[in-house]
Design goal:
alpha+beta, Peptidase_S1_PA_chymotrypsin
Length: 293
């Protein structure tokens, strides 16, 4: 006869197995995530993965790159300086946040040291989310931040130009951010990382989704390189294109959402800046310090 405590142990183990099965996530191919490090369903390892398979940038290589932090210094998103007063970022970065709780940092390179050059923090006066922003599918994922005081631009801190009206399909573009250089390592990089991607046409991008295109519309831009991607924590940061004739950088996209960062067969999705030029103009009071194409 089996002792009672063995029966109790067996029942307990079966209960644990049942709970494990019920709690296991349903595996769905290419489940989307937004790229903000502050996520409603955080992964213990992947919350700190950002630029995947990038390389270290040079100090001051991206003088328009913005780091968004909380008052306590916690980094939650990126952005791009477009004038003396205004920053563009992703709407989902600022949703349910207060302007008083956000710090805009410019000129950062290695956040583990104060000896990497000059950086400066700015307070936020207010911000505007696009009125038709839909978080679920990241439609109109764009926001404008106004700073309380002006940025005095120099070689180390300088705004990026807004783009000409073209598709950029087939062009090389660059993203930058602070984070892990390997998708399997959850430790963020102290040093700014950069990554070159290829901008895809709408048709090429749609082919990656195998007919499911609810996340892709004319206001989205796709960029891709095998096993390389922006990832969680890079949200709101710039996708920049460089004019090879003038060497001037243009903001063509805002990091918005992706599918399993760095997955071989999935591109990242970016808010297409050319779709929002009129909205940006109307909400920046036609700021004369903005560099238009």
């Amino acid at each position: 006869m089996v002792p009672h405590y063995y029966l109790y142990l067996l029942a307990f183990l079966l209960l644990l197995l049942l709970l494990h099965i019920l709690a296991a996530p349903l595996e769905i191919n290419s489940t989307p995530y937004d790229l903000d490090v502050v996520t409603t369903l955080p992964s213990p390892r992947n919350d700190f993965l950002r630029i995947v398979s990038g390389v270290p940038a040079r100090n001051n290589e991206f003088p328009y790159l913005v780091m968004l932090t909380r008052i306590n210094g916690y980094v939650f998103c990126g952005g791009a300086l477009i004038s003396n007063y205004y920053v563009l970022t992703a709407a989902h970065c600022l949703e349910n946040k207060a302007a008083s709780g956000i710090v805009v940092r410019l000129g950062e390179y290695d956040w583990s040291t104060i000896n990497d050059g000059f950086h400066v923090n700015f307070q936020v006066q207010n911000f505007i989310l696009h009125p038709k922003f839909i978080r679920l599918v990241a439609y109109n994922d764009i926001a404008i931040i106004r700073l309380t005081s002006p940025v005095y631009q120099a070689d180390t801190i300088k705004s990026i130009c807004l783009p000409p009206n073209k598709s950029f399909a087939g062009e090389k573009a660059t993203v930058a951010g602070w984070g892990a250089t390997d998708i399997n390592i959850g430790v963020p990089s102290h040093v700014l990382q950069k990554l070159d991607l290829q901008v895809l046409s709408q048709e090429s991008c749609r082919s990656f989704f195998h007919g499911s295109s609810m996340y892709l519309n004319k206001d989205k831009l796709c960029a891709w390189a095998q096993n390389k991607d922006s990832c969680k924590g890079d949200s709101g940061g710039p996708l920049a294109w460089q004019n090879q004739s003038t060497k001037r950088h243009y903001l063509i996209g805002i990091i918005s959402m992706g599918f399993r960062c760095g997955e071989t067969n999935m591109p990242g999705l970016y808010t297409r800046i050319t779709s929002y030029i009129d909205w940006i103009k109307s909400n920046t009071q036609n700021d004369t310090t903005i560099c238009w194409s």
